[in-house]
Amino acid sequence: MLRRRGLFAAALALPAAGQAQAPWPGDRPVEVIVPFPAGGGVDVMTRLVMPLLAERIPGLRPVVTNRPGAAGQIGLEAIFNAAPDGYTLGATTTPAHSGIPLERTARYRALDFTFLANIVEDPNCLYVRTESPYQTLADLVAAAKTKPGALDCGTTGIGSDDHIVMLEFEALAGIPPFIHVPFAGSAPLVPQLLGGHLALAVGNTNEVVVLAREGKLRCLAVATPERVADLPGAPTFRECGYDLIAGAARGIIGPPGMPAAVVARLEQAFRAALAEPAFKAEMARQIMPMRPLIGADYKAMAAAVDAKLQDLWKRRPWRG
To answer: Rounded distance, CA 209 to CA 281, Å?
Structure first.
């Protein structure tokens, strides 16, 4: 766990006038909704960062609650429809955040949330078990073309970032669609791949690195501009001839319409927390690549992802 730093709170807090505008007198906790099960990447990230935020805003008492279901839709709807008074925040991950309203009716509008701070961007990668006959991405593409409809690909769910990358890769490579096998997260997916029941999988580097180091998985390509330090032997998709950059961006949001003073207070606290050396070290230990974006910068990134997803939906629509 990160060591609490009470001395930093006074130094990093806003002036007294700003404090008077804060809605957190300590009389009730701030609920932070994670739309996914406990123990996953979004949950761990949230539980690591919120205590640091509390140190920088006296009176703010965060309580993380998990509201999983419908690939995140239930929790996101709860965040969106909560009172915008600063007592309900939440976590999310894009592009799934924008994918849900494309697939089906949802009680939220993807870009109308209050975007506070993006924290992580975990790159996508395509991987196989070490015993797989596919040594390279070129091997896999050749097999997909000669055996159309015979290769099954596991992802962490319909509309997940992994699923979307699978669709993008199929389009770029000009190959017949894989047989999509969605799972409720990487925990049930990886054993099926290791057991030889799947030809390949798309996931995030966070779930691949340790098993790759142990020689159980082989990463055929990562969706990053440059090679990933934790997977030095894996080429990028660009190296293999496919212009594919993608990852799961994970951050903290709030309901629409939060007061400007409250948002400013939270943004300042997030900016300081994400610069904390001990937090950076812990995120590296957890294999969670950081991409700090605050406020307007976070929303601009989310809007760019949303636009890219809208375009993909027109070309290769999927269903939830």
So the answer is: 17
